[in-house]
Design a protein that fits this description.
Chain lengths: 302, 338
């Protein structure tokens, strides 16, 4: 289907830029607070991704260097966030640790969506016994406490980046499956799908060209919020001590190390890693929430 | 009522496939992954013959599918079996630790509801005000605070800096839990014994863990109450109540909030799994002797039957809660028909 009005506009990049800038500057008025929520989320996410890509721009210390400074030095001076019990610079560990947690959370969310979305599409579209078996399986996993399942998997498989990513990914597959299946079922009944069927479109064409594009929009929102959840699950696993091999800078692991020095009053050991986890998760949550509101104002009201 | 019973028994039957699926996955993964109870017990350098004997004794030399069928047969007799590591029934440690987890979960839930519902209702009433925005921000922020970090921060402030509250365990060193232990729910036990000193001690130990769990989960309930209140405030029955000249407070907190409870209740059933996950993390932070620590201990020991038993109990727990939610729903909402 072609939109004739849009296709008549001259394809000028300058015009496009102008329109984008205009849309950007008026969006605040159109969407209200949600637009600023989105911007704050986006800012945090972009900043963290930048930090992940170029960590050496943010700190000159090596996160594993035990001679970075004196042991348990309070924040201030050259050690922005202080040092830990081994004399490592905490800010450097925060900067380099972002790679670990963001990588695991992103990979996990990607894996769950790559498994959950096709299964949900298929289940909702085909229906029948396949749908019933898949739904029952997914609902079972969904209603079970996710973290307990992740703990069980992670503990059984042992430490390692791949293992931990898989343990986190498994518990979020049903999230995508349930969302996509529900939407597929309702879109399947739409008039335009029926029209395509009448016109003789093949089943796979209907699924791929008529249903899939309409389903994928909402999964973007869920993907963002899901990364936030995955971040907290990864942090939880490594806090418990099930996470990554020792030696990799990791916020959750830093927290459980810092816990031992809590009675001595070394507050910086636990304050900063937790704050980083919270900020990163908050960034993705706000981004998702802002997107949800702007893409579909009815969604968040529910 | 008869229909309700039929519906409930159907629901109870549906937990069986759920249990089967979870158990199958855990069963297979545990046995496929390297490490088994015998090597966990005897170490890697035990004599081969001895290891083989021990494996035979525990039935570990059988093919996996045979072990699986044996286990299911045992389970169908409502028998969770015996531990492979310790000389005890699987149910023994579970029955000992479960009350601690439930006590923590329920008090945490009370805190979450106590903060989330009023704040959500208030935010909806003052929609688009600074207060509303702040309340929503609070909801988003606490949702993103990892439970264990919240626990550490509260420990740091109230346990270390001010030294007001204990930060570990269920009772202090001056109170013997064996003096009052009956049901395992210490708040109940101390009340049954009318031991006020012990009760205060138990309650004081519960404050920080319950706050930790409650505050982090209050965001979900805040958001939910607010969303439902907004719908209700736009509805006809609120308009009718206002038209009759009822005071605004009564309209908002009586009529609108009263009708927002049902969806919150439904959500409670769904969120219970999240609540349990949070409880496990709270347990690790506060050295709370509950199911979370038990699970971790036994996974490391590769104590297959106990780990499977814990999974079964958690699954049953979640199912029972969602059943309870359905029953309460049917009782308080006359429109619900089964």
């Amino acid at each position: 289907m072609k939109n004739t009005r849009v296709s008549q506009l001259p394809p000028s990049p300058g015009g496009l830029l102008n329109r984008a800038l205009h849309a950007f500057s008026t969006a605040g008025k159109t969407y209200g607070a949600e637009w600023y929520i989105l911007l704050v989320g986006l800012f945090i996410v972009v900043f963290m991704i930048f930090m992940t890509a170029f960590p050496w721009l943010f700190t000159s210390f090596n996160p594993s260097d035990q001679d970075a400074g004196p042991q348990l030095a309070a924040p201030g001076g050259i050690h922005l966030m202080g040092t830990d019990n081994l004399g490592r610079d905490i800010w450097a560990r925060m900067v380099w640790g972002a790679q670990t947690i963001l990588g695991v959370a992103f990979a996990a969310a990607l894996i769950s969506s790559l498994i959950g979305i096709p299964l949900g599409l298929l289940s909702g579209f085909v229906g029948g016994p396949l749908d019933r078996v898949l739904s029952l399986t997914m609902d079972s996993v969904y209603s079970f406490p996710g973290l307990i399942l992740a703990i069980a998997f992670a503990a059984m498989m042992g430490p390692g980046v791949v293992n931990i990513t898989l343990a986190v990914a498994v518990i979020y597959i049903p999230t995508y499956y349930r969302l996509v299946r529900g939407q597929t079922i309702s879109i399947r009944e739409e008039l335009y799908v029926e029209a395509a069927q009448v016109l003789g479109a093949k089943r796979w064409t209907i699924l791929g060209r008529y249903i899939f594009p309409n389903v994928i929009a909402t999964t973007v929102v869920v993907f963002s919020v899901n990364i936030a959840d995955a971040i907290m699950t990864e942090a939880a696993l490594s806090y418990i001590g099930l996470g990554l091999p020792a030696g990799m800078p990791d916020w959750g692991m830093d927290l459980s190390m810092g816990k031992k020095f809590l009675p001595s009053g070394s507050w910086w050991l636990i304050t900063f890693p937790g704050m980083m986890i919270m900020t990163l998760a908050l960034g993705f949550t706000l981004l998702g929430e802002g997107l949800a509101e702007i893409l579909n104002p009815k969604l968040l009201e529910r | 009522m008869k229909n309700l019973m039929r519906y409930l028994s159907m629901r109870l039957l549906l937990t069986i496939p759920m249990l089967l699926i979870l158990l199958t996955v855990v069963f297979i993964v545990m046995r496929v992954i390297p490490g088994d109870p015998v090597s966990a017990m005897l170490g890697d350098h035990a004599p081969v013959k001895f290891v083989a004997e021990k494996k035979h004794e525990l039935g570990l030399d059988k093919p996996i599918w045979e072990q699986y069928i044996d286990y299911l047969a045992q389970l169908s007799r409502f028998d969770l079996g015996r531990s492979m590591i310790l000389q005890e029934a699987v149910t023994a440690p579970i029955l000992e630790k479960l009350p601690a987890t439930i006590e923590l979960t329920l008090t945490g839930l009370l805190v979450a509801l106590g903060i989330g519902i009023p704040l959500g209702a208030w935010a909806a009433k003052n929609r688009r005000s600074v207060g509303d925005f702040t309340a929503r921000l609070y909801g988003n922020i606490v949702y993103c605070i990892p439970v264990f970090w919240m626990g550490l921060i509260l420990q740091m402030i109230f346990g270390v800096a001010f030294d007001w509250l204990p930060i570990a365990g269920r009772v202090g060193s001056r109170v013997m839990s064996s003096d009052f232990e009956q049901t395992g729910f210490y708040l109940v036990d101390t009340l049954l014994k009318a031991d006020l000193k012990a009760f205060t001690d138990v309650a004081i130990h519960l404050i920080l863990p319950a706050l930790t769990l409650g505050i982090t989960l209050s965001g979900i309930f805040l958001r939910l109450t607010r969303a439902n209140m907004l719908d209700n405030l736009k509805s006809d029955f609120v308009l009718a109540a206002r038209a009759r000249g009822l005071p605004e407070g009564k309209v908002v907190y009586g009529h609108a909030l009263g009708n927002a409870f049902v969806p919150v209740l439904t959500m409670l059933g769904l969120q219970f799994a999240v609540l349990l996950s949070g409880a496990i993390l709270t347990e690790t932070t506060f050295s709370w002797p509950g199911m979370g620590r038990l699970l971790l201990e036994r996974i490391y020991l590769r104590d297959y039957p106990t780990v499977q038993g814990i999974i079964v109990i958690f699954a049953l727990f979640v199912s029972v809660i969602s059943l309870l939610v359905d029953i309460i729903h049917a009782l308080i909402d006359p429109r619900v028909k089964y």
